Amino acid sequence: TSYGFSSVGEGEKQGLVNDVFHKVAKRYDIMNDVMSGGMHRVWKDAMISVLNPPKTPGWRFIDVAGGTGDIAFRIVEASRKEALGTVLDINGSMLGVGQERAEKRGLASHLEFVEANAEELPFEDKSFDAYTIAFGIRNVPDIDKALREAHRVLKRGGRFLCLEFSEVQMPVLDKLYEAWSFNGIPKMGQAIAGDGEPYRYLVESIRKFPRQADFAAMIERAGFSRVNWTNYTGGVAALHSGWKL
Ligand code: SAM
């Protein structure tokens, strides 16, 4: 298979993304550690401390492109098991792995798993106190539409947080990162998951994603206020924040 991503239209893109995650679902968690050298855990923990969920009942969040549950589990645990969450993903294989993990960790009663598209959230306006998305938005064909949906389902005063790979802003590190992502990551994918192509696609999607300031402008256009971002590891990842005021 070829994931010749640059030449595909929006409709096709989602199909390719789905293929990639159906293929990798079972090994997704281990691949995350390998590809990021364990850094994704540090970035995710940082995201949760920025969110700082209240340790009181009645607070609801949605984790979009939630995959195998990494973000949602952290939020529920940080709230001392008070928060209730919805893990939404377009891919049933990823959600299946997430549901199994939630049961093993005793978190299943705090979470619901919903198979749906980030571009069309099956929820009423003003349903959630927080919307999180980690390493997901760059896979969505129509990012502006997904951002408008995020704004719609949040309550007034609700928080939007997006963790995503971004533009490396340190000299040397950017070169190292490029070498690792274009050669290292597909090779590791080949070795561990038996197929390098999906990982080549993932690396390409990172390169195409808008840089920090441009993405912040998109979030503002969707209606969010007080938009800003924090770079992690020199900009390998960035956390964007916004409020629905
Ligand atoms: N958030 C998880 C994490 O940080 O470990 C999973 C991130 S994984 C790299 C990206 C996820 O985005 C996949 O589970 C994929 O199925 C999901 N995804 C891709 N396109 C989507 C869409 N249009 N709507 C919802 N989820 C989508």
Automatic annotation (TrEMBL):
Keywords: Menaquinone biosynthesis, Methyltransferase, S-adenosyl-L-methionine, Transferase, Ubiquinone biosynthesis
Known EC number: 2.1.1.163, 2.1.1.201
Pathway the protein contributes to: Cofactor biosynthesis; ubiquinone biosynthesis; Quinol/quinone metabolism; menaquinone biosynthesis; menaquinol from 1,4-dihydroxy-2-naphthoate: step 2/2
Catalytic reaction equation(s): a 2-methoxy-6-(all-trans-polyprenyl)benzene-1,4-diol + S-adenosyl-L-methionine = a 5-methoxy-2-methyl-3-(all-trans-polyprenyl)benzene-1,4-diol + S-adenosyl-L-homocysteine + H(+); a 2-demethylmenaquinol + S-adenosyl-L-methionine = a menaquinol + S-adenosyl-L-homocysteine + H(+)
Pfam families, A to Z: Ubie_methyltran
PROSITE patterns reported for this sequence: SAM_MT_UBIE, UBIE_1, UBIE_2
Residues reported to bind S-adenosyl-L-methionine: 68, 89, 117-118
Record GO terms (molecular function): 2-methoxy-6-polyprenyl-1,4-benzoquinol methyltransferase activity; demethylmenaquinone methyltransferase activity
One GO-annotated biological process of the protein: methylation
PANTHER family in UniProt: 2-METHOXY-6-POLYPRENYL-1,4-BENZOQUINOL METHYLASE, MITOCHONDRIAL (PTHR43591:SF24), METHYLTRANSFERASE (PTHR43591)
NCBIfam families with a match to the protein in the record: MenG_MenH_UbiE, PRK00216.1-3
Function: Methyltransferase required for the conversion of demethylmenaquinol (DMKH2) to menaquinol (MKH2) and the conversion of 2-polyprenyl-6-methoxy-1,4-benzoquinol (DDMQH2) to 2-polyprenyl-3-methyl-6-methoxy-1,4-benzoquinol (DMQH2).
Family in the record: Belongs to the class I-like SAM-binding methyltransferase superfamily. MenG/UbiE family.
Protein name in UniProt: Ubiquinone/menaquinone biosynthesis C-methyltransferase UbiE
Organism name: Pseudohoeflea suaedae
Record gene name: ubiE
